[in-house]
Structures are given as structure tokens and as C-alpha cells.
Amino acid sequence: MTFLKTVESYRQGARTLPGRYYTSAEVFAEEQERVFARHWICVGRDSALEQPGDYFVARVAGESIIVLRDQSGERRAYYNVCRHRGTRLCEAASGHLSETIQCPYHAWTYALDGRLIGAPHMNEVEGFDKKSYPLHRVPLAEWEGFLFVNLDPSVDTAQWFAPLSGRFSRYNLPLLTTVRRIEYDVRANWKLILQNYNECLHCPTIHPELSTKLPYTSGANDLIEGPFLGGYMEIKAPNESATMTGRACALPLGKLDGTDQRRAFYYALFPSMMLSLHPDYAVFYTVWPKSANESRVVCEWMVHPDAPRATGYNIHDAEEFWDRTNRQDWHICEQSQLGISSRVYAPGPYSPRESIPAAWDRTYLRALEGS
């Protein structure tokens, strides 16, 4: 594609991406195939599939994907497409299936493990074999209680998640319970949202509440290249957490040492997940591109499963803190989208404090080029 630039051109004297990467419908379409159809996309929490038969539907790279727990307790993902004449099988965004999935058109019926078990009148078709028509599977992986799908059937799950193995085990992420969820519609390209998350140079200007709790010059990054990027920031004493009051709002997520009790960790998992860890709660974001200049962001707050019943629980303190911060971010991303759409916009230089968004750009360009 003529709009693709080489990765090497961004290694020395890193600069922001050209405007077409944020405004072009052609680039957006290419991203769906080269980025979102070939990488692990977080679709939610394993806890959303509490019982056998529970399911939800995710939209990835233009495809509708059914994610469910089958009768044996195994998690599975399928294209939401009947093998008969292609009809969507599940219309609701989430729900519960008894023991089967039945097409609403001609009643082809599938077991939750994907086998075709019912096909009216197909016994009259010579040579027809139900074993030849299972649901189309989608690779699915679980990491720290999060579910990911990948439309590329050749993916290596273990290799992809290896750099994150055990990194956050002390935070008990698989056990955490979701207590708040907010969805935001943002009039900005999805990349601007990820790039914004990956630096805090803007924090003194945009985030007055955050800057009093988490000084932007504090901390350090420990993942600085590749698909997983981020590090920690210091919680400024006497604050105990990133909340409006500065007080802890819930039980500790795990057995954290003194250092972790004074730090918050922020990581981006390419291409579309962001994970924020605090001593007393965690927040994760998934970013869903809608068009070249529109995105939806889903934000969920998680706590220790015993926290809601414990003395002093006040997740609203954290929710208000990040809802306010998020809206400040979304507004400035929308202003960035408007400016980048100008005919006079040209790539500008990144500062040393923007090394993580520059590294994110390199990962993005490699993915877009298929390298």
C-alpha cells in the first residue's frame, strides 16, 4: 500500500504519525485486516461466563464472535455464522444458552462444543454428513482472568503472552470482581486514545486531580518496546491511592509489599487494551474502533471479591476520579483529531518523555506492514 511508511523512518528522531493514519478510511480498513484480525484482542473477563451456557457476542475486525462456556466448563469462541446459509445465530449481546445454539432461520442446531447436531431434512441429501459442518472456531486464550480472541488460526498463544507471565500475579487479577462499567463514545481515532494513555507529559495541563496524586515525573517504565508497554508511577504521600480523596477505597488486591502499596502501574497491551493497577483496585479499558475518527471505550473497575462487604469500601471515590480523568482525556483526543484533520498538520517530534507512544507507533507500523 502506498500509504505505508517503513518502520525504520521512525526509529531515529521519532515523530508522530502522518495525518492519514488518523483520517483515512483506506488506512482504517487496512487496520481491520492487518491489526485487529491478526492480534489478540481482549473481549472481556472470564467471569462474564459464570455458568455453562453463558455467552456474549464481541465484534472484532468486522466479525461477530460468540464467546461462551460449554457444558463441560470449557471456554470457546465461534464465528456468529450458521453453516447452512450464513445467518447470524445469536442476536442478543449476551445471554444464556440451554445446551444448544439454534439458527433462527432454518433451525440448524449446534452443541455448545460446536458440533452440528440437527439439520432438518438434510438426511434427504445424499452424502450429507453433519460432522463436516461444525461452527467455525476462533482461537481463544485466557490471561489473568481476561479473555482474548484472535481471528488468525495460526497464532502461537504461549509465545505471545510469555513476556507477561507472572508479572502481575501478586494482584490476583483472575479473582477480581467487576463492580463498575462505563462505555464512552469518543470522536477520535482509536490510536490517539492508546497514544494518550502511554504518556503523562500532558497530565499537569489536562489532569489537575490526577497530578496531585500521581506526579508525572515520578516512576519509570519497565516494558519499553514491543506489544506490551508501560510501568509505574509513585502515589504521592500522604495519598494512599488514585481516588478523589486520596484514601484507599477498597481492600488491597493482594499481598503487596511496601513498595507496591505506594505505586500504581499502567500498561498498554497492543493493540487495544489498557490495564491500570492500584493497591486497592484495578481498571481495564478496551478500545473499539468504529471508523477512522470514532471509537468506543469500555472501562471496568475491579476489586478484591471481599471488598464490597468490607468496612470503608467506597469504589465511587475511584470511579469519580477516573471518570473525570477519562473525560478529560477523551476531550483532548477529540481536539487532537480535529487538529490532525487540518491540511496544515504535519508530523511533530516526540520528546524523551514520549518514548512509550513512539514505541507504540513502531509496534503499530510493524503490524500494519505484516512484519
In short:
By secondary structure, this protein is of the alpha+beta class. It is 22% helix and 26% strand. It has a 7-stranded antiparallel beta sheet with strand order 11-17-16-15-14-13-12, covered by helices on one side.
Order of H and E elements: HHEEEEEEEEEEHEHHHEEEEEEHH
* Low-pLDDT regions: 1-11
Rounded mean pLDDT is 94
The CA-CA distance between the termini, in Å, is 14 Å
Major sheet size, sense and barrel closure: 7 strands, antiparallel
Physical arrangement of strands within the biggest beta sheet: 11-17-16-15-14-13-12
Q: Helix count, per DSSP?
A: 8
Number of strands: 17
The helix-and-strand class reads alpha+beta
Radius of gyration: 22 Å
Shape: globular
Helix content: 10-25%
Portion in strands: 25-35%
3D architecture notes:
With 371 residues, the chain is of the alpha+beta class. The chain is built from 8 helices and 17 strands. Strand 6 and strand 7 form a beta hairpin. It has helices at residues 20-23, 25-36, 157-161, 190-197, 203-206, 208-213, 315-340, 355-369, and strands spanning 41-45, 54-60, 63-69, 75-79, 94-96, 100-102, 109-111, 116-118, 140-143, 146-149, 177-186, 220-223, 228-234, 263-269, 273-277, 282-291, 294-303. Strands 11-17-16-15-14-13-12 form a 7-stranded antiparallel beta sheet, covered by helices on one side. A 4-stranded antiparallel beta sheet has the order 4-3-2-5, with no helix packed on it. The chain starts with 19 loop residues before the first helix and ends with a helix.
Question: What keywords describe this structure?
Answer:
8 helices; seven-stranded antiparallel beta sheet; single chain; alpha+beta
